[in-house]
Amino acid sequence: MDPSSPETNDPYCSTSQAAKMLGVSLGTAQNMVEEGVLDAWKTSGGHRRIKRESVMALLARRGSAQVAPAVGEGGLSLLIAEDDAFLQKLYRKTMDSWGLPISIEIVGNGFDALMVVGQRVPDVLIVDLIMPGMDGFELVRALHGNPALSSTDIIVVSSMSREDIGKRGTLPPDVPIYGKPIPFHELHGFFRAKITQKLRLQRGR
Protein backbone atom coordinates (compact mmCIF):
# COMPACT_ATOMS: atom_id res chain seq x y z
CA MET A 1 0.00 0.00 0.00
CA ASP A 2 1.21 3.51 -0.78
CA PRO A 3 2.49 4.99 2.56
CA SER A 4 0.97 8.35 1.60
CA SER A 5 -2.46 6.77 1.13
CA PRO A 6 -5.06 7.88 3.70
CA GLU A 7 -6.05 4.23 4.16
CA THR A 8 -2.74 3.13 5.68
CA ASN A 9 -2.80 2.01 9.34
CA ASP A 10 0.36 3.96 10.25
CA PRO A 11 -0.76 6.90 12.46
CA TYR A 12 2.26 8.93 11.34
CA CYS A 13 3.74 9.94 8.01
CA SER A 14 6.82 11.75 6.75
CA THR A 15 6.85 15.34 5.52
CA SER A 16 7.10 14.22 1.90
CA GLN A 17 4.15 11.84 2.36
CA ALA A 18 2.09 14.64 3.96
CA ALA A 19 2.99 16.94 1.06
CA LYS A 20 1.82 14.32 -1.43
CA MET A 21 -1.45 13.79 0.44
CA LEU A 22 -2.14 17.53 0.59
CA GLY A 23 -1.01 18.20 -2.97
CA VAL A 24 1.50 20.86 -1.91
CA SER A 25 5.25 21.27 -2.20
CA LEU A 26 7.63 19.78 0.34
CA GLY A 27 8.58 23.29 1.45
CA THR A 28 4.94 24.17 2.11
CA ALA A 29 4.46 21.05 4.20
CA GLN A 30 7.61 21.90 6.17
CA ASN A 31 6.27 25.40 6.81
CA MET A 32 3.01 23.91 8.05
CA VAL A 33 4.94 21.79 10.53
CA GLU A 34 7.06 24.70 11.74
CA GLU A 35 3.97 26.87 12.27
CA GLY A 36 2.09 24.13 14.10
CA VAL A 37 -0.58 23.68 11.45
CA LEU A 38 0.43 20.03 11.17
CA ASP A 39 1.00 18.16 14.42
CA ALA A 40 4.44 16.57 14.33
CA TRP A 41 7.50 15.55 16.32
CA LYS A 42 11.13 14.94 15.44
CA THR A 43 12.92 11.63 15.76
CA SER A 44 16.37 11.38 17.33
CA GLY A 45 17.72 11.46 13.79
CA GLY A 46 16.03 14.80 13.10
CA HIS A 47 13.28 13.46 10.84
CA ARG A 48 9.77 14.83 11.18
CA ARG A 49 6.93 12.45 11.91
CA ILE A 50 3.54 14.01 11.26
CA LYS A 51 0.28 12.84 12.80
CA ARG A 52 -1.78 11.53 9.92
CA GLU A 53 -5.01 12.70 11.59
CA SER A 54 -3.82 16.33 11.38
CA VAL A 55 -3.24 15.88 7.63
CA MET A 56 -6.70 14.36 7.24
CA ALA A 57 -8.24 17.26 9.17
CA LEU A 58 -6.69 19.71 6.70
CA LEU A 59 -7.90 17.64 3.77
CA ALA A 60 -11.43 17.63 5.21
CA ARG A 61 -11.37 21.39 5.63
CA ARG A 62 -10.16 21.92 2.07
CA GLY A 63 -12.72 19.43 0.80
CA SER A 64 -15.54 21.44 2.34
CA ALA A 65 -14.35 24.69 0.75
CA GLN A 66 -15.80 25.96 -2.50
CA VAL A 67 -13.42 25.31 -5.37
CA ALA A 68 -13.20 27.94 -8.05
CA PRO A 69 -14.72 26.86 -11.37
CA ALA A 70 -12.52 26.51 -14.42
CA VAL A 71 -12.13 29.57 -16.61
CA GLY A 72 -12.35 29.71 -20.37
CA GLU A 73 -10.28 31.59 -22.92
CA GLY A 74 -9.00 34.85 -21.49
CA GLY A 75 -10.52 34.11 -18.10
CA LEU A 76 -8.68 34.74 -14.88
CA SER A 77 -8.35 32.57 -11.80
CA LEU A 78 -8.41 34.66 -8.63
CA LEU A 79 -7.46 33.58 -5.13
CA ILE A 80 -8.38 35.86 -2.22
CA ALA A 81 -6.88 35.41 1.25
CA GLU A 82 -9.20 37.32 3.59
CA ASP A 83 -10.47 36.17 6.99
CA ASP A 84 -13.36 38.64 7.42
CA ALA A 85 -16.58 36.82 6.48
CA PHE A 86 -18.37 40.04 5.49
CA LEU A 87 -15.54 41.10 3.18
CA GLN A 88 -15.40 37.61 1.68
CA LYS A 89 -19.06 37.96 0.68
CA LEU A 90 -18.49 41.53 -0.53
CA TYR A 91 -15.60 40.44 -2.75
CA ARG A 92 -17.65 37.67 -4.34
CA LYS A 93 -20.89 39.66 -4.74
CA THR A 94 -19.17 42.71 -6.24
CA MET A 95 -16.87 40.81 -8.59
CA ASP A 96 -19.66 38.50 -9.75
CA SER A 97 -21.66 41.61 -10.69
CA TRP A 98 -18.91 42.71 -13.11
CA GLY A 99 -19.74 39.94 -15.56
CA LEU A 100 -16.05 39.31 -16.24
CA PRO A 101 -14.64 35.79 -16.82
CA ILE A 102 -13.13 35.50 -13.36
CA SER A 103 -13.18 32.36 -11.21
CA ILE A 104 -12.96 33.24 -7.53
CA GLU A 105 -11.72 31.14 -4.64
CA ILE A 106 -11.57 32.61 -1.13
CA VAL A 107 -9.66 31.30 1.89
CA GLY A 108 -9.35 32.67 5.41
CA ASN A 109 -5.64 32.36 6.15
CA GLY A 110 -2.21 32.06 4.62
CA PHE A 111 -1.82 28.31 5.02
CA ASP A 112 -5.05 27.58 3.17
CA ALA A 113 -3.83 29.93 0.44
CA LEU A 114 -0.55 27.99 0.24
CA MET A 115 -2.49 24.76 -0.13
CA VAL A 116 -4.54 26.16 -3.00
CA VAL A 117 -1.46 27.55 -4.74
CA GLY A 118 0.25 24.19 -4.32
CA GLN A 119 -2.60 22.56 -6.26
CA ARG A 120 -3.33 25.24 -8.89
CA VAL A 121 -1.45 28.48 -9.45
CA PRO A 122 -3.82 31.49 -9.70
CA ASP A 123 -3.48 34.35 -12.15
CA VAL A 124 -4.07 36.85 -9.35
CA LEU A 125 -3.67 36.61 -5.58
CA ILE A 126 -5.26 39.24 -3.31
CA VAL A 127 -3.90 39.15 0.23
CA ASP A 128 -5.07 40.69 3.50
CA LEU A 129 -2.21 41.23 5.92
CA ILE A 130 -3.84 40.52 9.28
CA MET A 131 -5.10 36.93 9.35
CA PRO A 132 -4.97 34.08 11.89
CA GLY A 133 -2.28 31.45 11.57
CA MET A 134 -0.03 32.46 8.71
CA ASP A 135 -0.68 36.15 8.05
CA GLY A 136 -0.35 38.06 4.79
CA PHE A 137 3.22 39.12 5.47
CA GLU A 138 4.36 35.51 5.77
CA LEU A 139 2.25 34.45 2.80
CA VAL A 140 3.66 37.09 0.45
CA ARG A 141 7.22 36.33 1.55
CA ALA A 142 6.65 32.61 1.06
CA LEU A 143 5.34 33.06 -2.49
CA HIS A 144 7.15 36.10 -3.83
CA GLY A 145 10.06 35.18 -6.06
CA ASN A 146 8.87 31.59 -6.51
CA PRO A 147 9.54 30.78 -10.20
CA ALA A 148 6.31 28.76 -10.37
CA LEU A 149 4.39 31.96 -9.63
CA SER A 150 6.23 34.21 -12.06
CA SER A 151 2.99 34.96 -13.94
CA THR A 152 0.90 35.49 -10.78
CA ASP A 153 0.10 39.06 -9.74
CA ILE A 154 0.15 39.49 -5.95
CA ILE A 155 -1.90 42.40 -4.58
CA VAL A 156 -2.18 43.43 -0.94
CA VAL A 157 -5.45 44.94 0.32
CA SER A 158 -5.21 45.89 3.99
CA SER A 159 -6.57 48.29 6.59
CA MET A 160 -3.04 48.77 7.91
CA SER A 161 -1.32 52.08 7.27
CA ARG A 162 1.96 52.07 5.37
CA GLU A 163 3.68 53.18 8.56
CA ASP A 164 2.29 50.16 10.45
CA ILE A 165 3.19 47.88 7.56
CA GLY A 166 6.75 49.18 7.74
CA LYS A 167 6.89 48.46 11.46
CA ARG A 168 5.78 44.87 10.89
CA GLY A 169 8.30 44.30 8.14
CA THR A 170 8.61 45.49 4.58
CA LEU A 171 6.89 43.84 1.63
CA PRO A 172 8.50 43.35 -1.80
CA PRO A 173 8.56 46.70 -3.66
CA ASP A 174 6.80 45.30 -6.74
CA VAL A 175 3.75 44.17 -4.71
CA PRO A 176 1.08 46.90 -4.88
CA ILE A 177 -0.57 47.83 -1.58
CA TYR A 178 -4.13 49.16 -1.40
CA GLY A 179 -5.99 50.34 1.67
CA LYS A 180 -9.50 49.41 2.74
CA PRO A 181 -12.34 49.95 1.90
CA ILE A 182 -11.61 47.48 -0.88
CA PRO A 183 -10.60 49.44 -4.01
CA PHE A 184 -13.08 47.75 -6.34
CA HIS A 185 -12.80 50.46 -9.01
CA GLU A 186 -9.04 49.94 -9.32
CA LEU A 187 -9.38 46.15 -9.19
CA HIS A 188 -12.05 46.20 -11.91
CA GLY A 189 -9.77 48.16 -14.22
CA PHE A 190 -6.85 45.88 -13.46
CA PHE A 191 -8.84 42.72 -14.20
CA ARG A 192 -10.15 44.12 -17.49
CA ALA A 193 -6.60 44.95 -18.61
CA LYS A 194 -5.31 41.55 -17.45
CA ILE A 195 -8.07 39.70 -19.34
CA THR A 196 -7.33 41.68 -22.52
CA GLN A 197 -3.64 40.91 -22.20
CA LYS A 198 -4.28 37.21 -21.64
CA LEU A 199 -6.58 37.00 -24.67
CA ARG A 200 -3.93 38.60 -26.88
CA LEU A 201 -1.32 36.16 -25.70
CA GLN A 202 -3.58 33.15 -26.20
CA ARG A 203 -4.69 34.21 -29.66
CA GLY A 204 -1.16 35.06 -30.70
CA ARG A 205 0.10 31.52 -30.20
Explain what the structure shows.
- The protein is α/β, with parallel strands linked by helices.
- The protein folds into two domains: 52 residues, Orthogonal Bundle (Multidrug-efflux Transporter Regulator, Chain: A, Domain 2); 137 residues, Rossmann fold, CATH 3.40.50.2300.
- Helices cover 42% and strands 17% of the residues.
- The chain is built from eight helices and eight strands, in the order E-H-H-E-E-H-E-H-E-H-E-H-E-H-E-H.
- Strands 5-4-6-7-8 form a five-stranded parallel beta sheet, with helices on both faces.
- Strand 7, helix 7 and strand 8 form a beta-alpha-beta unit.
- Helix 1 packs across helix 2 and helix 5 runs parallel beside helix 6.
- The longest helix has 20 residues.
- The protein starts with 11 loop residues before the first strand and ends with a helix.
Descriptive tags:
8 strands; three-stranded antiparallel beta sheet; Multidrug-efflux Transporter Regulator, Chain: A, Domain 2; 205 residues; single chain; alpha/beta; Rossmann fold
Q: CATH-wise, what's the superfamily of the largest domain?
A: Response regulator
Q: Quick one: overall form?
A: globular
Number of β-strand runs: 8
Q: What is the helix/strand order? A: EHHEEHEHEHEHEHEH
**Strand arrangement in the largest pleated sheet:** 5-4-6-7-8
Q: Name the beta content range.
A: 15-25%
How many individual domains? 2
